[in-house]
Every structure is written in structure tokens, then in C-alpha cells.
Amino acid sequence: MSVLDNWDQWKNFLGDRLHHAEGDGMKQEAVGDLAYEIGDYLAKQVDPKNDQEKVLADLWSVASKDEQHAIANMMVKLVQNNGTR
Questions:
Q1: What angle is formed at CA 57 by the lines to CA 56 and CA 62, rounded to 5 degrees?
Q2: Phi, psi torsion values for 84, nearest 5 degrees
Q3: Which residue among 35, 36, 59, 79 is the one 20 to 30 A from 26 at the CA level?
Q4: Are 81 and 10 a contacting pair, CB within 8 Å?
């Protein structure tokens, strides 16, 4: 089972990666840029696996680049308290 199949597992996976990046000293702006790149890749290359991912994919598809950055930054905020720290 892929982490993309379950929304809570996906958020925990992202949270773990975020805490790791922050622990390695990655600045918030770099985290946001990376989140945007991941979001763009997922939107273009990966089929949504659950309802939440479908909503994100739909929003991403109609968003401007600035709005996509905002979505990516909101995802970072969403997962900040997820993961194992």
C-alpha cells in the first residue's frame, strides 16, 4: 500500500519529511519551493488515490502559479504537526 492511498498516512509521511528538512536547517522559503515542486509533479504525473487528493488536484488544475504556491504552503502548514518528530 502506497502512502498516497490513505490521506492520514500521506500527511504523516509529509510531516516526517518536513521535520527532517527543518532539522537539517532547510529554510521555510526553500521548504515552500520544494512543496510547490512536489505538488506540481503530483498534479502532472500521479493519479489521485483518495477524495482529498482529487480535491487538491482539481484546485491545482485551476489555480494560477501564485495560487499553487499558496496551496503548497497550506499543505506545509497542514502537516507541520504530523509525523513522528
A1: 100
A2: -100, -10
A3: 59
A4: no
Domain ranges of the chain: 3-79
One-letter amino acid identity for 47? D
Nearest 5°: the CA angle 53, 54, 56 is 65
Residue with cell 509525523: 83
CA distance 35 to 49: 19
Q: Which architecture characterizes domain 3-79 according to CATH?
A: Orthogonal Bundle (1.10)
- Alpha-carbon gap, residue 6 to 61, rounded angstroms: 21
At 71, which amino acid appears? Answer: I
pTM for this predicted structure: 0.83
* Residuewise pLDDT in 10s, the chain (85 residues): 676 778 888 888 888 888 888 889 999 899 999 999 999 998 999 899 889 999 999 999 999 999 999 999 999 998 888 765 5
For the chain, the residue count is 85
